[in-house]
Write a structure and sequence with these properties.
Elements lengths: L4 E4 L9 H16 L3 E4 L11 H13 L23 H13 L3 E4 L3 H13 L15 H9 L5 E4 L5 E6 L3 E6 L7 E3 L7 H11 L4 E5 L6 H11 L5 E5 L2 E2 L15 H7 L3 H9 L14 H7 L10 E2 L21 H5 L7 H12 L2 H8 L18 H10 L9 H9 L8 H8 L3 H13 L6 H15 L4 H12 L7 H8 L1 H15 L5
Parallel strand pairs: 1-2, 8-9, 10-11
Antiparallel strand pairs: 3-4, 4-7, 5-6
């Protein structure tokens, strides 16, 4: 059996967003499931947009997601170089062959001339196709243009035929080549077009399966024609469904298309994002949603992908007034947090993994999020026993690690006070003071050591004061934290312990000018 070889071929003209990352993941998982190879290739023929910074960001993103490539930049392999700008001599060799075989030709039409023809077609309401003006130039005419150093492109001489794409996801799709026309293979700057370079690279790198987004389906007939012109064996094609946001529209900078690394900054573990993206348009054989990496790598089958659009539900649907102003690409972690959908599948998966992952791993993952935390420096180490204990107690409430620092800071808070007048008023209004005194007395007469025991004391306070709900819990939160919101109180009280909790209440009572006994 032929070894399965897949590839991910990003253009280094920006960050790696969710759509590109899912394409990479599908290629990676399919290669692993089929015991094959996953190749990384950099398509940087668009020299105006390609940058070294983007190249590094893409590599960093893939490594964070755990998608190590078997061949490619930094790894090498038998079919390099793996960056297109370093392969120009290879493309030229194949271009000369096509021209020699009269399967391609030089086009000396100026950009102004072509633009004029395009506008004329648009005015007539018909699609523009190159009219083939240069397809029958004589050798003398060609040499005359070359001697004048006239700029030219190289066009493919498109045969008239029906091109059938036998797609592993979309099924059989037919295209008429007469609607394609003689398209450009090599641009006037000498760099190959996307459709040309990708075919030569896929053939020479022995790619057996081309897995990419459905937006590339329209490119496929051109690529098949080039494969056939060279006599290259065709790879299998698989075009994954479109990804849409919560509003049902294609992902964009206004609909959740943000950098993969933004999810790292938000505090999601890489396994969570991998698992979530794997399910964007694919279902496991048994319908399971939460899977270990090893299971994903063994059961993934590209033919189980759906044709229907996959919903990326991580971000909330924007309000009308936000649609023209919000740009997800420009938001930092704090800004993105404001638009997260708390009920997304990603958050559910993330909470489950944070609960299950070994606490030692979680402590180390936590360290970057503690750099600016208001806690003593010695406790910022992910291996410190106190920090590990606190994190182990609160992780059940975390959807992402960026949520943890406020809870951890609460434990170390020394300079107590009320964060604002609202927090203070929760204690002073109505029966708030009575609730606080009663709760304080209950704490003094008991020895609680668990969340359940603190819940019982809070319930007992409610029975003695005839208060419940907000008028019971908010005065207790105010007298113990000085805040109007935060970690679930029984959890916090257990972390603090009775002695520290008692001291906090006495300090805040003094600030509020009330007595507790």
């Amino acid at each position: 059996m032929t070894e399965v070889r897949t590839r991910f071929a990003p253009s280094p003209s920006g960050f790696l967003h969710v759509g590109g990352a899912r394409t990479a993941l599908f290629n990676y998982l399919y290669a692993k499931a089929m015991k094959g190879k996953f190749i990384l290739r950099v398509e940087d023929t668009d020299q105006d947009r390609s940058t070294e910074a983007s190249f590094k960001i893409i590599l960093e993103s893939l490594k964070w997601l755990g998608m190590e490539w078997d061949e490619g930049p930094g790894v090498g392999g038998p079919h390099g170089p793996y960056t297109q700008s370093e392969r120009l001599h290879i493309y030229k060799e194949y271009t000369d062959k096509l021209i020699g075989d009269r399967k391609a030709y030089r086009c000396f039409c100026s950009s102004e001339e072509l633009e004029g023809k395009k506008k004329q077609a648009e005015s007539m309401g018909i699609p523009y196709l190159y009219d083939g003006k240069c397809s029958e130039l004589t050798e003398e005419e060609i040499q005359n243009n070359l001697s004048k150093k006239a700029p030219y492109t190289v066009r493919f001489r498109t045969p008239n035929k029906i091109v059938i794409v036998d797609d592993m996801i979309q099924g059989k799709v037919k295209f008429e080549s007469k609607l394609i026309g003689d398209f450009i293979l090599v641009k006037s700057d000498g760099f190959p077009s996307y459709n040309y370079a990708v075919v030569i690279d896929d053939a020479l790198m022995q790619i057996t399966h081309v897995i990419r987004g459905v937006g590339h389906l329209s490119n496929t007939p051109r690529q098949i024609l080039i494969f056939e012109a060279f006599g290259f064996p065709l790879p299998r094609f698989a075009h994954a469904s479109e990804i849409v946001g919560s509003d049902g529209k294609k992902l964009s900078k206004r609909a959740g298309a943000t950098s993969v690394l933004a999810f790292r900054e938000l505090g999601y573990l890489s396994e969570t994002l991998r698992n979530y993206m794997a399910l964007l348009g694919w279902t496991s054989p048994d319908g399971k949603e939460y899977m270990e990496d090893s299971e994903l790598c063994s059961v993934f089958d590209i033919e189980r992908c759906s044709k229907s659009p996959a919903t990326f539900d991580v971000f909330k649907k924007l309000k009308e007034e936000e649609k023209e102003t919000v740009d997800f690409n420009k938001l930092d972690a704090a800004g993105l947090s404001d638009y997260l959908n708390p009920k997304s599948k990603l958050n559910w998966m993330s909470n489950k993994l944070i609960r299950d992952v070994p606490i030692e791993r979680l402590g180390k993952e936590m360290e970057p999020f503690l750099a600016d935390a208001k806690i003593p420096n010695e406790y910022k180490s992910g291996t410190h026993p106190t920090l590990v204990s606190i994190l182990d107690s609160v992780r059940v409430y975390l959807d992402r690690l960026i949520q943890a620092p406020p809870y951890i800071e609460e434990f170390f808070l020394e300079d107590l006070g009320f964060e604002n007048d609202e927090a203070k008023s929760l204690l002073l209004e109505g029966n708030g003071t009575i609730v606080a005194k009663t709760f304080y007395e209950q704490i003094l007469s008991a020895n609680p050591t668990s969340p359940d025991q603190y819940k019982e004391i809070m319930s007992g306070t409610g029975e003695k004061t005839a208060e419940k709900g907000r008028t019971l819990f908010m005065p207790i939160r105010s007298i113990t934290t000085g805040k109007s919101h935060g970690l679930e109180l029984p959890i916090l009280f257990t972390l603090l312990g009775k002695e520290k909790l008692q001291k906090r209440m006495e300090i805040l009572a003094k600030v509020a000018n009330i007595t507790l006994n």
